[in-house]
Amino acid sequence: MGIISSGILQTNLNGYILKNPIITASGTYGYNNEYSDFVNVSTLGAIVTKAITLEPREGNKGIRIAETKAGMINSIGLENVGIERFLEEKLKVLKDENIEFIMNIAGSTIREYVELAKICDENKIKAIEVNISCPNVKAGCLEFGTEENSLYELVNSVRNNYRGILIVKLTPNVTSIEKIAMAAQKAGADAISAINTLKGTQIKINCQNGEINKTIISGGYSGKGIKPIAVGAVMRIAQVVNIPIIGIGGIETLEDVLEFFAAGAEAVEIGTANFTHPNISETIIKELEEYVKINGFKDIEELKKELRS
Ligand SMILES: Cc1cc2nc3c(=O)[nH]c(=O)nc-3n(C[C@H](O)[C@H](O)[C@H](O)COP(=O)(O)O)c2cc1C
Protein backbone atom coordinates (compact mmCIF):
# COMPACT_ATOMS: atom_id res chain seq x y z
CA MET A 1 0.00 0.00 0.00
CA GLY A 2 1.12 3.58 -0.75
CA ILE A 3 2.71 6.04 1.61
CA ILE A 4 0.29 8.47 3.23
CA SER A 5 2.30 11.65 2.59
CA SER A 6 2.22 12.04 -1.19
CA GLY A 7 -0.15 15.02 -1.14
CA ILE A 8 -2.81 13.66 -3.51
CA LEU A 9 -5.27 13.44 -0.61
CA GLN A 10 -4.73 17.03 0.54
CA THR A 11 -8.04 18.61 1.49
CA ASN A 12 -8.91 22.29 1.79
CA LEU A 13 -11.69 23.18 4.22
CA ASN A 14 -12.11 26.89 3.51
CA GLY A 15 -8.44 27.60 4.12
CA TYR A 16 -7.90 24.86 6.69
CA ILE A 17 -5.54 22.51 4.89
CA LEU A 18 -5.52 18.86 5.95
CA LYS A 19 -3.15 16.21 4.61
CA ASN A 20 -6.14 13.96 3.95
CA PRO A 21 -9.93 14.11 4.46
CA ILE A 22 -10.17 11.42 7.16
CA ILE A 23 -10.93 12.83 10.60
CA THR A 24 -11.98 11.01 13.76
CA ALA A 25 -15.21 12.11 15.43
CA SER A 26 -15.63 13.78 18.80
CA GLY A 27 -16.23 11.52 21.77
CA THR A 28 -14.88 8.44 20.08
CA TYR A 29 -11.16 9.25 19.99
CA GLY A 30 -10.21 10.76 23.34
CA TYR A 31 -8.24 14.00 23.56
CA ASN A 32 -4.98 13.26 21.78
CA ASN A 33 -2.93 10.08 21.40
CA GLU A 34 -5.15 7.52 23.16
CA TYR A 35 -5.23 5.38 19.98
CA SER A 36 -1.45 5.39 19.46
CA ASP A 37 -1.18 1.64 20.23
CA PHE A 38 -3.16 1.04 17.04
CA VAL A 39 -2.51 3.99 14.74
CA ASN A 40 0.11 6.61 14.02
CA VAL A 41 -2.31 9.38 15.00
CA SER A 42 -0.25 12.09 13.29
CA THR A 43 -1.00 10.55 9.87
CA LEU A 44 -4.74 11.30 10.19
CA GLY A 45 -6.29 14.35 8.51
CA ALA A 46 -7.19 15.47 12.02
CA ILE A 47 -8.77 14.21 15.20
CA VAL A 48 -11.69 15.98 16.87
CA THR A 49 -11.30 16.12 20.64
CA LYS A 50 -13.97 15.01 23.09
CA ALA A 51 -16.29 17.98 23.74
CA ILE A 52 -14.64 20.45 26.10
CA THR A 53 -16.71 22.60 28.48
CA LEU A 54 -15.61 25.51 30.66
CA GLU A 55 -15.80 23.45 33.84
CA PRO A 56 -14.96 19.73 34.17
CA ARG A 57 -18.01 17.45 33.95
CA GLU A 58 -18.50 14.02 35.46
CA GLY A 59 -21.15 13.03 32.95
CA ASN A 60 -24.21 10.88 33.51
CA LYS A 61 -24.60 8.19 36.13
CA GLY A 62 -25.86 4.68 35.38
CA ILE A 63 -25.68 2.80 32.10
CA ARG A 64 -23.97 4.98 29.52
CA ILE A 65 -23.66 2.81 26.45
CA ALA A 66 -25.57 -0.03 24.84
CA GLU A 67 -24.87 -1.97 21.68
CA THR A 68 -27.73 -2.19 19.18
CA LYS A 69 -28.15 -4.31 16.05
CA ALA A 70 -26.77 -1.59 13.79
CA GLY A 71 -24.80 0.73 16.04
CA MET A 72 -24.89 1.94 19.62
CA ILE A 73 -26.66 4.28 22.01
CA ASN A 74 -24.63 6.51 24.29
CA SER A 75 -25.60 8.63 27.22
CA ILE A 76 -22.19 9.89 28.32
CA GLY A 77 -23.46 13.35 29.33
CA LEU A 78 -20.44 15.30 28.08
CA GLU A 79 -17.96 13.96 30.63
CA ASN A 80 -14.72 15.86 30.09
CA VAL A 81 -11.74 17.35 31.90
CA GLY A 82 -12.72 20.99 31.30
CA ILE A 83 -10.80 23.66 29.39
CA GLU A 84 -8.17 24.33 32.06
CA ARG A 85 -6.90 20.75 32.28
CA PHE A 86 -7.20 20.36 28.50
CA LEU A 87 -4.81 23.29 27.99
CA GLU A 88 -2.47 22.19 30.79
CA GLU A 89 -2.23 18.47 29.98
CA LYS A 90 -3.79 17.42 26.69
CA LEU A 91 -2.68 20.22 24.37
CA LYS A 92 1.02 19.57 25.03
CA VAL A 93 0.73 15.97 23.78
CA LEU A 94 -1.10 17.12 20.63
CA LYS A 95 1.67 19.61 19.91
CA ASP A 96 4.59 17.33 20.87
CA GLU A 97 3.28 14.51 18.70
CA ASN A 98 2.35 16.78 15.81
CA ILE A 99 -1.29 15.66 15.84
CA GLU A 100 -3.64 17.85 13.79
CA PHE A 101 -6.72 18.49 15.88
CA ILE A 102 -10.05 20.25 15.93
CA MET A 103 -11.35 21.20 19.36
CA ASN A 104 -15.00 20.32 19.99
CA ILE A 105 -16.59 22.82 22.37
CA ALA A 106 -19.90 22.69 24.25
CA GLY A 107 -21.82 24.84 26.71
CA SER A 108 -25.27 25.60 28.12
CA THR A 109 -25.35 29.34 27.49
CA ILE A 110 -24.02 31.65 24.79
CA ARG A 111 -21.74 33.19 27.41
CA GLU A 112 -20.09 29.82 28.02
CA TYR A 113 -19.50 29.25 24.30
CA VAL A 114 -18.10 32.78 23.91
CA GLU A 115 -15.79 32.28 26.87
CA LEU A 116 -14.49 29.05 25.30
CA ALA A 117 -14.12 30.73 21.90
CA LYS A 118 -12.02 33.51 23.44
CA ILE A 119 -9.77 30.99 25.19
CA CYS A 120 -9.33 29.04 21.93
CA ASP A 121 -8.48 32.27 20.14
CA GLU A 122 -5.93 33.30 22.80
CA ASN A 123 -4.33 29.86 22.63
CA LYS A 124 -4.22 29.96 18.82
CA ILE A 125 -6.29 26.79 18.45
CA LYS A 126 -6.45 26.43 14.65
CA ALA A 127 -9.94 24.96 14.34
CA ILE A 128 -12.97 24.44 16.57
CA GLU A 129 -16.11 22.39 16.08
CA VAL A 130 -19.09 23.86 17.91
CA ASN A 131 -21.33 21.17 19.32
CA ILE A 132 -24.77 22.74 19.27
CA SER A 133 -26.66 19.66 20.41
CA CYS A 134 -26.57 20.91 23.99
CA PRO A 135 -29.65 22.20 25.80
CA ASN A 136 -30.07 25.96 25.57
CA VAL A 137 -30.79 26.78 29.20
CA LYS A 138 -32.40 30.15 28.34
CA ALA A 139 -34.69 28.66 25.70
CA GLY A 140 -35.89 26.07 28.22
CA CYS A 141 -34.00 22.92 27.28
CA LEU A 142 -34.38 23.34 23.52
CA GLU A 143 -31.11 22.42 21.88
CA PHE A 144 -29.31 25.41 20.29
CA GLY A 145 -29.16 23.47 17.08
CA THR A 146 -32.89 22.98 16.68
CA GLU A 147 -33.94 26.59 16.27
CA GLU A 148 -32.52 28.94 13.59
CA ASN A 149 -32.52 32.15 15.63
CA SER A 150 -30.80 30.62 18.69
CA LEU A 151 -28.31 28.94 16.37
CA TYR A 152 -27.60 32.19 14.52
CA GLU A 153 -27.05 34.12 17.74
CA LEU A 154 -24.76 31.43 19.14
CA VAL A 155 -22.62 30.99 16.02
CA ASN A 156 -22.41 34.73 15.40
CA SER A 157 -21.27 35.35 18.99
CA VAL A 158 -18.59 32.66 18.68
CA ARG A 159 -17.52 34.08 15.29
CA ASN A 160 -17.03 37.55 16.79
CA ASN A 161 -14.63 36.13 19.36
CA TYR A 162 -12.68 33.52 17.42
CA ARG A 163 -10.47 34.05 14.36
CA GLY A 164 -9.65 30.42 13.49
CA ILE A 165 -11.61 27.90 11.44
CA LEU A 166 -15.14 27.70 12.81
CA ILE A 167 -16.97 24.44 12.13
CA VAL A 168 -20.59 24.09 13.26
CA LYS A 169 -21.75 20.54 13.97
CA LEU A 170 -25.42 20.00 13.21
CA THR A 171 -27.90 17.77 14.94
CA PRO A 172 -30.22 15.61 12.79
CA ASN A 173 -33.02 15.95 15.35
CA VAL A 174 -34.70 18.78 13.44
CA THR A 175 -37.43 19.27 10.87
CA SER A 176 -35.27 21.12 8.33
CA ILE A 177 -31.52 20.68 8.62
CA GLU A 178 -31.18 22.90 5.53
CA LYS A 179 -32.57 25.94 7.37
CA ILE A 180 -30.21 25.37 10.30
CA ALA A 181 -27.25 24.97 7.92
CA MET A 182 -28.12 28.23 6.15
CA ALA A 183 -28.33 30.03 9.51
CA ALA A 184 -24.87 28.68 10.45
CA GLN A 185 -23.40 29.90 7.17
CA LYS A 186 -25.02 33.32 7.53
CA ALA A 187 -23.66 33.61 11.08
CA GLY A 188 -20.11 33.17 9.82
CA ALA A 189 -19.31 29.44 9.99
CA ASP A 190 -16.35 28.36 7.83
CA ALA A 191 -17.63 24.80 7.51
CA ILE A 192 -20.43 22.52 8.63
CA SER A 193 -20.13 19.03 10.04
CA ALA A 194 -23.14 16.70 9.98
CA ILE A 195 -24.50 14.74 11.66
CA ASN A 196 -24.42 14.33 15.41
CA THR A 197 -26.29 11.39 16.98
CA LEU A 198 -30.02 10.73 16.66
CA LYS A 199 -32.27 10.45 19.69
CA GLY A 200 -32.86 6.79 20.49
CA THR A 201 -33.87 4.36 23.20
CA GLN A 202 -33.17 0.71 23.86
CA ILE A 203 -35.35 -1.31 26.22
CA LYS A 204 -33.76 -4.63 27.11
CA ILE A 205 -36.34 -7.07 28.37
CA ASN A 206 -35.46 -10.02 30.51
CA CYS A 207 -38.27 -12.39 31.53
CA GLN A 208 -37.72 -15.09 34.15
CA ASN A 209 -40.53 -17.17 35.65
CA GLY A 210 -43.07 -14.63 34.50
CA GLU A 211 -41.19 -11.71 36.07
CA ILE A 212 -40.14 -8.95 33.68
CA ASN A 213 -36.97 -6.96 34.20
CA LYS A 214 -36.33 -3.96 31.96
CA THR A 215 -33.12 -2.04 31.35
CA ILE A 216 -33.79 1.26 29.60
CA ILE A 217 -31.17 3.46 28.00
CA SER A 218 -32.02 6.64 26.14
CA GLY A 219 -29.38 8.72 24.41
CA GLY A 220 -27.65 9.36 21.10
CA TYR A 221 -27.86 6.66 18.46
CA SER A 222 -24.81 6.30 16.20
CA GLY A 223 -23.08 3.78 13.96
CA LYS A 224 -23.91 2.00 10.73
CA GLY A 225 -27.69 2.32 11.11
CA ILE A 226 -27.58 6.12 10.78
CA LYS A 227 -25.54 6.26 7.56
CA PRO A 228 -28.45 6.73 5.10
CA ILE A 229 -29.83 9.52 7.29
CA ALA A 230 -26.43 11.20 7.39
CA VAL A 231 -25.79 10.87 3.64
CA GLY A 232 -29.25 12.34 2.96
CA ALA A 233 -28.60 15.23 5.35
CA VAL A 234 -25.25 16.04 3.71
CA MET A 235 -26.83 15.95 0.26
CA ARG A 236 -29.59 18.34 1.26
CA ILE A 237 -27.21 20.71 3.07
CA ALA A 238 -24.90 20.75 0.03
CA GLN A 239 -27.76 22.12 -2.04
CA VAL A 240 -28.20 25.19 0.15
CA VAL A 241 -24.74 26.26 1.40
CA ASN A 242 -21.44 27.00 -0.30
CA ILE A 243 -19.11 26.31 2.62
CA PRO A 244 -17.44 22.89 2.96
CA ILE A 245 -19.31 20.03 4.65
CA ILE A 246 -17.73 17.31 6.76
CA GLY A 247 -19.88 14.17 6.55
CA ILE A 248 -20.37 12.06 9.69
CA GLY A 249 -22.48 9.00 10.43
CA GLY A 250 -21.95 5.27 10.30
CA ILE A 251 -18.78 5.28 8.23
CA GLU A 252 -17.02 1.91 8.29
CA THR A 253 -15.48 1.42 4.84
CA LEU A 254 -13.91 3.22 1.89
CA GLU A 255 -17.21 2.81 -0.01
CA ASP A 256 -18.98 4.71 2.78
CA VAL A 257 -16.48 7.55 2.43
CA LEU A 258 -17.01 7.69 -1.35
CA GLU A 259 -20.76 7.84 -0.76
CA PHE A 260 -20.34 10.92 1.44
CA PHE A 261 -18.09 12.57 -1.18
CA ALA A 262 -20.72 11.87 -3.82
CA ALA A 263 -23.32 13.52 -1.55
CA GLY A 264 -21.19 16.65 -1.37
CA ALA A 265 -18.87 16.19 1.64
CA GLU A 266 -15.30 17.48 1.37
CA ALA A 267 -14.10 15.42 4.32
CA VAL A 268 -15.52 12.86 6.73
CA GLU A 269 -15.40 11.98 10.40
CA ILE A 270 -15.36 8.40 11.65
CA GLY A 271 -16.92 7.75 15.07
CA THR A 272 -18.46 4.55 16.40
CA ALA A 273 -16.39 2.31 14.09
CA ASN A 274 -13.25 3.29 16.05
CA PHE A 275 -14.52 1.22 18.98
CA THR A 276 -14.61 -2.03 17.03
CA HIS A 277 -11.79 -1.25 14.55
CA PRO A 278 -9.37 1.13 16.28
CA ASN A 279 -7.12 1.38 13.19
CA ILE A 280 -9.99 1.98 10.73
CA SER A 281 -9.06 5.59 9.95
CA GLU A 282 -5.50 4.70 8.92
CA THR A 283 -6.74 1.74 6.86
CA ILE A 284 -9.23 3.93 5.00
CA ILE A 285 -6.59 6.62 4.30
CA LYS A 286 -4.35 3.98 2.68
CA GLU A 287 -7.25 2.51 0.70
CA LEU A 288 -8.35 5.95 -0.46
CA GLU A 289 -4.89 6.85 -1.69
CA GLU A 290 -4.66 3.52 -3.50
CA TYR A 291 -8.12 4.06 -5.04
CA VAL A 292 -7.20 7.52 -6.36
CA LYS A 293 -3.97 6.19 -7.92
CA ILE A 294 -5.31 2.92 -9.37
CA ASN A 295 -8.22 4.69 -11.03
CA GLY A 296 -5.95 7.32 -12.59
CA PHE A 297 -7.27 10.41 -10.82
CA LYS A 298 -4.84 13.33 -10.49
CA ASP A 299 -5.85 13.86 -6.89
CA ILE A 300 -8.77 13.56 -4.51
CA GLU A 301 -10.44 16.69 -5.86
CA GLU A 302 -10.69 15.11 -9.30
CA LEU A 303 -12.18 11.97 -7.74
CA LYS A 304 -14.79 14.03 -5.82
CA LYS A 305 -15.72 15.91 -9.00
CA GLU A 306 -16.23 12.66 -10.86
CA LEU A 307 -18.29 11.19 -8.00
CA ARG A 308 -20.63 14.20 -8.11
CA SER A 309 -21.05 14.36 -11.87
C1 LIG B 1 -19.60 7.55 22.87
C2 LIG B 1 -19.85 8.76 22.01
C3 LIG B 1 -19.54 10.04 22.51
C4 LIG B 1 -19.76 11.17 21.72
N1 LIG B 1 -19.42 12.41 22.21
C5 LIG B 1 -19.55 13.51 21.42
C6 LIG B 1 -19.11 14.79 21.87
O1 LIG B 1 -18.56 14.94 22.98
N2 LIG B 1 -19.30 15.86 21.04
C7 LIG B 1 -19.88 15.74 19.80
O2 LIG B 1 -20.02 16.73 19.07
N3 LIG B 1 -20.28 14.52 19.34
C8 LIG B 1 -20.12 13.41 20.10
N4 LIG B 1 -20.51 12.18 19.63
C9 LIG B 1 -21.09 12.08 18.27
C10 LIG B 1 -20.05 11.66 17.24
O3 LIG B 1 -18.98 12.56 17.17
C11 LIG B 1 -20.69 11.46 15.84
O4 LIG B 1 -21.23 12.70 15.42
C12 LIG B 1 -21.80 10.43 15.85
O5 LIG B 1 -21.47 9.33 16.68
C13 LIG B 1 -22.11 9.90 14.43
O6 LIG B 1 -21.00 9.28 13.84
P1 LIG B 1 -20.75 7.68 13.87
O7 LIG B 1 -22.01 7.03 13.40
O8 LIG B 1 -19.57 7.44 12.95
O9 LIG B 1 -20.43 7.34 15.29
C14 LIG B 1 -20.29 11.03 20.41
C15 LIG B 1 -20.60 9.76 19.93
C16 LIG B 1 -20.37 8.63 20.69
C17 LIG B 1 -20.70 7.27 20.12
Can you describe what's shown?
- This protein is an alpha/beta fold.
- The chain has a single domain (11-63, 72-199, 221-308), classed as Alpha-Beta Barrel (TIM Barrel).
- It has nine helices and 16 strands.
- It has helices spanning 82-96, 110-122, 148-159, 177-186, 227-238, 254-263, 273-276, 280-294, 300-308; strands at 11-13, 16-18, 22-24, 46-48, 65-68, 71-74, 101-105, 127-131, 135-136, 142-143, 165-170, 191-194, 198-208, 211-222, 245-248, 267-270.
- The strands form four sheets. Strands 3-4-7-8-11-12-15-16 form an eight-stranded parallel beta barrel, surrounded by six helices. A four-stranded antiparallel sheet has the order 5-6-14-13, with no helix packed on it.
- Strand 13 and strand 14 (211-222) form a beta hairpin.
- It is globular, with a radius of gyration of 19 Å.
- The model has no long low-confidence stretch (mean pLDDT 95).
- The structure holds flavin mononucleotide.
- Flavin mononucleotide binds at residues 25-28, 50-51, 72, 74, 76, 78, 104, 131, 169, 196-197, 220, 222-223, 226, 248-251, 270-272.
Provide key terms for this protein.
309 residues, alpha/beta, TIM Barrel, 9 helices, 32% helix, globular, binds flavin mononucleotide
**What name is given to the CATH topology?**
TIM Barrel
Distance between the termini: 28 Å
Proportion of residues in β-strands = 15-25%
Number of strands: 16
Main sheet record:
8 strands, parallel, barrel
> Can you give the helix content as a percent range?
25-40%
CATH class designation = Alpha Beta
Biggest sheet, strands in spatial order?
3-4-7-8-11-12-15-16
Structural class: alpha/beta
Query: In the residues, how many domains can be counted?
Result: 1
Q: What is the CATH architecture term?
A: Alpha-Beta Barrel
Bound molecules: flavin mononucleotide
State Rg.
19 Å
Form type: globular
Query: Helical region count?
Result: 9
Q: Write out the CATH superfamily name.
A: Aldolase class I
